[in-house]
Structure formats: structure tokens, C-alpha cells
Design goal:
heterodimer, A: 193 residues, 73% helix, B: 209 residues, mainly alpha, two-stranded antiparallel sheet, 2% strand, globular
Amino acid sequence: MNELIWIFISALLVNNFTLSLFLGLCPFLGVTQRLETAFRLGLANIFVMVITAIASYVLNTWVLIYAPYLRLISFIIVIASTVQFVEMAIKKLSPDLFKALGIFLPLITTNCAILGLALFSTNKGYGFMEGIVYALGAGGGVTLALVLLAGIREETKILNIPKIVEGTALNLIIAGIVSMAFMGFAGLFANAA
Amino acid sequence: MNTKLEIQDGAAAQEFIKGLWKENPVFVAVLGMCPALAVTNSGINGLAMGLATTFVLISSSVLVSLLRNAIPKQVRITAYIVIIATFVTVIDFLLAAFFPDIHKELGAFIALIVVNCLILGRQESFASKNSVGLAVMDAAGMSFGFTFALLCIGLIREVLGSGSIFGFGLFGEGFEPWIVMILPPGGFFALGFLLLGFNWYAQRKKAMA
């Protein structure tokens, strides 16, 4: 149980997917104009990540032991099509949830954070439960990063910013400062782990 | 003057040059950010990642361009991804076999070349519509531009963060390295301030004109 908590906290804060592994930067810089959108994108991310964790566990256990060189190709195809199927299922079963996640579901599938999750948890040799907890932590971390950046960006809109800093340069520097704050979590489990 | 050959030559050279500077994938289009920031904590890592991406981009552009009439429109994205993933698997195993140190250093980020939006973007917007020759020029220009950008970011971070260039010490004992530059925030800062510099230059040029 303890180990699961460590995996969760480590993926959420210490090795935050966006801020210290640079995964999923495209939506991080692209879709963080508004807090509300950023939050929903984060939720969709958690959702897809958990499905990915299950799919990659199944692939690793039953298929890829026979053909390890197919890992990358099978991951990307299986994950993309699984998410498509789940999307159709949700549309049918729970239109409310579908509306909440909206356009983000298909977009997220091609996000590097998703493939990164599958690859990292394979490299670390996580089992079923560990994989799911890792996915929850990683998704939570992405959501946290998205919401933090969106919150700061909403504030910067009412500020008087020099023209040359506007746009991507400003977002990257803000992201750098937030990432620096997250470096403070680095020693969190130094003696525990 | 306008012989057919000349036009083709000019076009090919143009496709090559635009990727290096005018449409530089990292500095101008801000594509492929994950690898550009994640592995560039030293010059050599940035260069290795750039060259691996170059191999994948050029090979898959050739294949996509050759198959451009054979791939049905509806499944084209899937087809591109399978082609890209194949070449990434190839480079992954090549690096593991010949350069195990670099392979260890870059880790899962080699596999993540698959989802580099730069590569898929070039297939969709260029290789699938042009002849093999032009596609190769475009891919080469884009990927050299990408490698150049990664090398820049990597060198800046290495010089400031460890006080060395390609592992050779620069400043001697008295230099206190800016550790933050080789940590993740340094990636954001290096690219952020580079973009800031380009913005400043562009605005100054406009003001002088």
C-alpha cells in the first residue's frame, strides 16, 4: 500500500509529467487560455491515461512477450483505437460525460504524455494496480500543471506586458518558474525511497 | 532563363533552406517541444536527439512520398504513424546496439520521437503531396533546422549549467555552475529567452526599416 502511495505522489509532484519530463507540452501551451477549459482537458487526460495503463498492461502481459520489437507500433495503434471505442461507448451510455470531455478526447490520444505513460510504466516494470495508480498520479500532475498555468495566464491578460515578451516566450518563462517551484518537491521521498 | 530544370533546382534549394531558418520548427513554429526541452541538458544529447529525429523524418518522408498514391485518404494518418513508428523502432535498436551510452541517456525519449508533431506534420502537409526529391529536401531542411535548434538549446544549457562544451571544461575552478539550467526549469528558461531574443531582434529590424 505504501508503495502505491509513493508511486502516486512521485508521479503527481516529484516527477510531474509536464513540468519535469516535458510531456504533453502542446496542450500545456496551446489550451491554457482559460481555467475552465484547462481543467476539463486535465480530467480527460486522467481518463485516457487510466485506459492507456490498462491497455498497455494487457499488451505487455499477453502479447509483447512474444514480439517485443512491436512494442511501439502496437502501443500507439492499440491506444488510439481503444480511446476511439471508449469515446463511442461514452457517447452512447453517458452523453453528459461525453459533453464534459468533448473534443479533447480524440486530441489527447496523440499527446506524447499518453505514449510516455505507457513507455515509462513498462520500463519501470509496473504491475496492474501500480500501473493504474501511476496513471492517476501522472494525470493528476498534468491537470495540476494545466490549471496552474491557466490561472497565471488569466492574470497576465490584465497586465501591461511589453510586446516582445508576449506569446510563447512569456508562457515558457512562466512555465519555467512554476517548474522551478516543483523542483522543491525533489527531496520529498529521499529517505523514504 | 526559366528552364524547367532551373525552377526545380531553385524549388528544391528553397524547400531546404526554409526549414533551417525562416520556418525553423522549434524557434518559429514551436513544434516538437517535448524532445527539444527534455533531453537538451547538454550539447551532445541535443545533437544525438536531433540526428535521430533527422533519420526518422527523412526516411518516413521518402516512404510516405513514394506511397502517396497508394494510401487511401481515410486511413492516411494511421498509415503515417505506423511508418514513423517503424523507423523509430529501427533507430531505437540501432542506438542501443552501437551507442549504448547515448541510448541510456536519452531513454524513453527516443521512442517518443513517434509523437513528435513535427514529423507527422511534415508527412501530412508536405511529403504526402510532393515528389520524393522535394520531400527529401523539405525533410532534410526541417530536420537540420530542428537539430540546429536542439544543439543551440543544449549548448546554452551545458555552458551555463555545467560550465563546459561537449564535456570539455570552459571556465576553470572559479566558475559556479547554474545548476538550474541543467534541471527541467532550465529547458523552459533557455527556449523562453531565446524566443524573447528573436522577438526583440524582429521588432528592432522592423523599427529600423
